[in-house]
Amino acid sequence: MTMVSPELFAPEARRALVRLRHVYRVYRVSDTGVVALGGVDLDIPSGEFLAVVGPSGAGKSTILNLLGGLDRASAGTVEVDGQDLGLLDDDALTAYRAERIGFVWQGTARNLVPYLSVRENVRLPRILHRGAADRRRGSDELLRLVGLSARANHRVGELSGGEQQRAAIAVALSNTPTLLLADEPTAELDSVSSEAVLEAFRAVNREFGVTIVMVTHDLIAARRADRRIRVRDGRILMEGVHVDPVGNDGRVRLPDDAVAALGDAELEAEITPDEVRLRRRSETGHA
Ligand code: ADP
Ligand code: MG
Q: What residue ranges define each of the domains in the chain, with the CATH number in brackets?
């Protein structure tokens, strides 16, 4: 079966901040191994807002944990900003995590200190990790960007779920991380709150150019990112192709590379609620 090579769909050559090469993560469970990642190759350009989608158990969180230095690959290389994380010892990895990474988790309990005010939460990472003070952003500026200026003096427990997630984004950004990692950040939110949280991600991405990797199985949330990749069974199925919005006449123009790769083969389309898949008729075995 001939497949369209994923390289044809690579985003234009911006500097890759993140490079995963043949990354495997195998968990040992009693006598056997569970393959959480089975050879992942991925480039993430600096400044990109990337969504990672896929079913439960696909390996999404595993990718995030490797990028954040919370876990190590069993094989392959995980490189962030030219640094091979596999070469760092535990102390260096801890420093990497503190200085370069911001996390936003699904549940607010892991993101925020409940008895502190929103502003105090945003200031906390700077108190804990001194250094590079000149690069830091004002907590009020961060709270404005995520739409929480009016809530700065409230305690976290007084905020709604969506407001807490936006506060978590401000906290994660307060130490000027290189990478903002979010694992199912809107999973517990209604659609209006989700939209506000996604807008906060977009705002910090736009204003600070911070690279964002957001794991989600919410396809509406994924659509707000610059690009989507799909993970299944520990592998990346296909890099998302950027296609301009459907025109007034209902046509979509495919990228030239895709047109070239598909050639004048006879195509067939599979339409699902979240995507339209084109493939050569001959690949499916149908006449
Ligand atoms: P996702 O976030 O996409 O739901 P995960 O990355 O959490 O998936 O998990 C990928 C696979 O690895 C799953 O099969 C999961 O059961 C397995 N796995 C994850 N963490 C562990 C662990 N600590 N021990 C054993 N297996 C694990
Ligand atoms: Mg997960």
A: 6-239 (3.40.50.300), 254-287 (no CATH)
